[in-house]
Amino acid sequence: MKGNDYTRGWIALCALFMLFALSGCGAAGEAVDMSASKKERSEPVVLRYSSFQMDSGSAYFEWIAEFERHNPDIKIDVDYIENANYMTGLKMRLLGGERMDVFDVWSSSLFEEVRRIEPNAYLDISGSPFLDDFHPASLAPVTIGGKVYGVPGLMHTSGLIYNKSMFERLGLEVPVSWDEFLIVCEELRSRGIVPVALNSEWWVPQFLFGSMMSNNGADAAWTDKLESGEARANDPILIDAMMKTKEIIDRGYVPSDWQRNKHEQSKEMLFRGEAAMIVTGTWDLPNVISRSPDQKFEFMMVPGEDRTVPNLNIGSYKVISSGTDHPEEAKRFLAFMNGREMQQQGARTMLAVPSAKDAIVDEPIVDKISSFVLRRDAVIYWPHTISTESLQVAILEQVNAYLAGQDLESTLSAIQDEVDRDRVAR
């Protein structure tokens, strides 16, 4: 190396030492304690996750722990709200200004209910690469004006779980029309078996009634007409579904004390062989199968007169609060928790259908459910197309009152009043 090269090298080295020295000084040459900022950078970002899905035994805790292992720069603060109090809990947090970075909504109706309280509640995640992994239909309920505000979880369908072993023993075929369904119910009743284990918990009859609504054509477009006033509560679509649900009660195809029963009691009837079918959704299959391993259980749709339409019932959607200070970290959490790998794991355990495309689940029951929910004519489960959770509950409470003995005319009038009241309040 030549002399001038040594000189230039020495000058450069001195400059480098000067740069390091200055980096520990303030603008006026005052010393700056770098340990605080270094410590701040080393501490993980804390995301608060509010959910109704963290009940005991939930795999979600394991998934969260796995996410934290893969993302050591993020810590999840779990805010568990019981299912029965979830809507109230969300409202309290929203109205009280309590911090929520990520939270779950269990239906498009609850998704809209939150928007009614705070129109800008959700962070727009449009364009996020992980959205390409989902079935387009599963994103529709959380898409507004072409912008996406959430990611879907596992997909279910609702209707009837039936005792396949009993059907085979009695030589009964799964009905494919409403008339065939009534014939099967009559055969079961004649043998001293309760055909349908219905109960009075307010959220249960909707899985029978809602399926009939879908069969009759009550999709999102019809619901919009109902809420805008273009369609009325006395629409044949609604009346027929209500009357068919009441018919199985009047014919004695449900327990005589159904109004006093709870959902758990209905499942017990199924396990003991006292009932052949139960009104519910595919989310109950794991519990039913595990508690009665000596019998075979499967799912059937509620058959319609002219057509039987499969319902798409998405268990939950994860959304990000628009007020989060950590949007990128929150997106990573959504992409992991609802991503293909986690959905594949969850689908095997919960016997549900992943909303992530190209997911592989080697489970015959899941394949059968997939044949329902991924059909082209599958529709978002009614009444989840009702704009808000509050209106949905109000309508269903009136339907339940009709099933318990309230006359049809009064019920339809009360439903119309609820719809009109909601429209005025918007």
TrEMBL record:
InterPro entries: Bact_solute-bd_prot1, SBP. Keywords: Signal. Residues 1-27 form the signal peptide. PROSITE patterns: PROKAR_LIPOPROTEIN. Transmembrane segments: none annotated. This is ABC transporter substrate-binding protein. It comes from Paenibacillus soyae.
